[in-house]
Amino acid sequence: MNLQNLLSEIEKVDGEIFDRLAHVSRRGLFSSLTKKTIAVAAPAIMASALTKAYGQSSTLPSNVVDVLNFALTLEYLEFEFYDIGHNLSMIPSSYAAAFELIREHEQVHVRLLRSVLGSSAVAKPKFDFSAKGTFTDTFTNFATFSAIAQTLEDTGVRAYKGQAPNLMNAPAILQVALQIHSTEAAHAANVRYMRGQKGWITGGTAAMQGLPSVVDGNYKGEDNVTQAGVNLATALAGDTRITSDMVTQAFDEPLSKADVLVLVTPFLA
Q1: Among 136, 159, 141, residue whose Cα is nearest residue 218
Q2: How far apart are alpha carbons 226 and 165 in whole angstroms?
Q3: How many Cα atoms sit within 13 Å of 65 on the Cβ side?
Q4: Which percentage of the chain shows pLDDT scores above 70?
């Protein structure tokens, strides 16, 4: 989302935001903010809008606080991973800018979630990016680094999807969560491209994503071919151009909070 669109979305939630920003006009704010300051200003501005819509974080519905803290923990994990990998020589120069942009996105997500949660925000845990010794060269081997990045992004997308129904009682927060979700999906597709993979998930095994079997659990359920009660592999069987793999690619499956916590626990020190 560019700055102009961001400001428009914020004003939809909080029509008085510009009056409270020292009477700065839309044009004045747009022209004065640089790309460097957007990452700092946007989370605070959007958090202000959400706070106005829902009150202080202490008055947010408990289920919303739970979802946002769950999302914040995942964003902490992703940002810390990319922050450690920031500017490491093992990242090919042709991919360095993309990983830096992903890092900045995750930083914005962390700042926004912390701003909305306020004193209810969980503290950042300590991480173990060897996943309890599973990976021995996370930050020295680009193949390992990018494989973990793909797994984290794919899992994050499914995690946000799984929590969307739990934000139905907070429409504005649900909207922002879905905007983060689509950005995480773009990260996943980008990392997959850098690894020479398709931009979407195929089937329900790690091997089908070009990943080691140790992360099979992250792709559990992605072999599903039934949507809205219809077995699409059977329903579309008459079209020889469509395979079961194509059906699994066309729909991404959610992950429950319990499943995600099991998957990310090895990365918690």
Answers
A1: 159
A2: 20
A3: 15
A4: 78
